[in-house]
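check these tokens.
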Amino acid sequence: MSTIVEPVPSGLTRELGGRLRDWVPALVVFVLAIALWQGLTTAFHVQTFLLPKPSDIARSFWENKSALWSAGVYTLKEAAGGFVLGSGLGILAALLLARFRVVGAALMPFAIAANAIPIIAFAPITNNWFGLLNPFSKMAIAAVLCFFPTMVNTLRGLTSVHPSSIELMRSYAAGETAVFRHVRIPNSLPFMFTGLKISAVLSMIGAIVGEYFGGPTNALGVSILNDTQLFDFPRAWAGIVLASAFGLAFYGLVVLAEHFTTSWHPSARSFSGE
């Protein structure tokens, strides 16, 4: 009599299954919200310029999918460029501020003041600096939005190391470079990815806002603005939905990078239930 041994699911399979189960409530709420949206706009005869029906938005997206997709990819490239530029500078600034505390104390108020300026104030300025049709003018706006969250979170991770870890490194006569490499930087990774996840969404917002103040006609922000001025609100909402989808996809890529980069960290293991 043979015995059938069922394969034991690996840790990765269990984790993926857990992640999928975590998304089920959100998907249920999303479906219910769309159904409620469709039902209320139909029952109360809501005008299209106030709030189009989801079915009209989906139909408009399908009819204009080629143009919308092309515009969305163009804006996504601007957002990605601003994300890389702003987040890279934020991480570099955090390393410098953590290494030289006096400089950090002197420069932090200026970084906070720059972050407090409304982003729409930067858009006309960057358009004048780099040119209305230059993608870098939109990347600069996205970079401004990405810089501060990445810098603050990374700096927090670099400076919140347990003193015993520093003392242990000092007992081995480790220099400041070794302390950063083996203690501070690994400790900062979960904090850094928190800032990167925030920046991934903000980068798309920055690119869209920059395009509202002028840009090429094949940009998503310009397309949404033109559609609203032409009273084609279903297509405008289709562009908004596409921008949201790209933002979520960008966020998901950062989460995936975080999983493979910080899977060794205790916070990642506790999150996965191990």
